[in-house]
């Protein structure tokens, strides 16, 4: 009986250790407004954004997808757009319709004032079959 209690304690501590470590999960920040889908690009690997882009472009009601990024994530947004356009050209024909760049004021992390930060908004649209021929 004493051995069983000792084993149970070891098992309980193992379970606690497993649950105490947070699993790193990437959740892509996205939204749909009318016929437009928006994906906010961060520092994650570009491949993590492709499934969401494919799901948007596979819907008939979505006409365009905006890729939005700020600061150091701007280069990642450009990579996502270009890699998606080139890698998935057989599945979905897309083109970059418009690119907006600018500066916006963003609240600081310590919430004391605002800072100016650069942003990019890449608008991608699905090409119709008649346009691609």
UniProtKB/TrEMBL annotation:
Region feature (Disordered): 1-27
Annotated GO MF terms: nucleic acid binding
One Pfam family this sequence matches: Alba
Domain DNA/RNA-binding protein Alba-like: 59-101
Composition-biased stretches (Basic and acidic residues): 1-11
Biased composition annotated in UniProt, kind: Basic residues: 12-27
Gene3D superfamilies: Alba-like domain
Name of the featured protein: DNA/RNA-binding protein Alba-like domain-containing protein
Species of origin: Marine Group III euryarchaeote CG-Epi1
Lineage of the organism: Archaea, Methanobacteriati, Thermoplasmatota, Thermoplasmata, Candidatus Thermoprofundales
